[in-house]
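Onboarding guide, step 5: your first structure request.
Type a short instruction followed by the sequence, for example:

Predict the 3D structure of this protein.
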Amino acid sequence: MRLNSLALRLFFSATTWTVVILVVTGIVLSSIYRAAVERAFDRRLGVYLRTLVADVATPQENAGKFPQSLGEPLFDLPLSGWYWQVTRLDAATPEVRSSRSLWDEKLSHLADLGVSAAPGAARQGYGEGPEGQRLRIVERTIDLGEEGRYLVAVAGDAAEIDEEIRSFDGALIITFAVLAVVLLLTTTFQVRFGLAPLKRISEGLAAIRSGAAERLEGAFPVEIAPLARETNALIDANREIVTRARTHVGNLAHALKTPISVMINEAARQSNDPLAAKVREQTDIMRDQVTRHLERARLAARVAVIGTVTEVAPVVTALARTMEKIQHHRGVVIDVDPVEDARFRGERQDLEEMVGNLVDNACKWAQSRVAIAVLSEKPDPVSDRRTVRIIVDDDGPGLSPQQREQVARRGRRLDETKPGSGLGLSIVVELANLYGGGLTLGTAPIGGLRAELVLPGS
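The system replies with structure tokens like these:
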């Protein structure tokens, strides 16, 4: 999942909601469990409270004979954390009786701590006991009429509650952590499975661009099936436009060349007429311009075709062998060092035209040797795009920097004794530019001119 990708957004969104839901659920469950543990603890204290209330409400002759332990030995153990206390509220000086475990300390009154309760009901809350203990206290006020009003309280060590909660929270955290990992793995699988059709479309478009396929094939989900259909329709429309453009270019070429040829022929008959000479001069310029622009239109139409890929090594090897046979009488040797997996993202005819012009030019000027090297490179490590470099060296006289600038211009020839129209390198430059590449001239290691052609690869 790359940065700023759809998969990463879906994963982070699902992860965020998963964490939020698990945290909130954990807090709610912990609160519910705490309340349940407190209720169970309060019921336990309530049993002891009712026993004390029953003893307080016994006839006068039995008053003061409270059981000390209430069936729980901790009430006899000093400062054990389990205490009971009975306080008479209507006496001039409050009478307090308590368990042996309370020693000479007293329990806090929940009413003084702000804990409220319904009339006749018991209060439950937390208070501080001897030596700073945190206690869970249950107390109740009893009105026996003439026999007095009493506040009966029973307290237990709240550490038991806290221990139960900690144990539950630990188990809850482990359970939810495992659940979170499982949910995140499930989310990852769902994101990858859900976005797999988009990946197929991306791979299909890359295959079309590289020439391995012509259309997006296969069944797609209903949500993205229209995208696949429209993409295929766009590819078909592109091919149709290119075909129509080629036809129009051919028709225009025939329509213009015929009138120009007629004008040239008519002017040639009037050899002594200055006007005819001027007409011939201008019609030659017109023919050259028409040929140039029609050629550019033809090349642009061919470059616009999507998915055309050409193997470079067979083309370069075939051209080298052909040119070597042509230059056999001069003894020119052509060395070829091609890369077998180099592929040009364009038409074979264009590659043959560009490389053919470069090799032909090198053979014309070479003394005895021409070297051709083909390289397939990946300029950007992040991108999957590749480039093809075709290097043509000769051992001829070479060119100065000023001469290199001139030879790439259309129709410029530095030596009229050599055959040619002066259009070769300019055609290479125009074709390379149309494909997004370029041609650079330099000095070859073997002494002559180096022509380096860079083209888009696949």
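Each response can be followed by summary notes, for example: DSSP finds eight helices and twelve strands in the chain.
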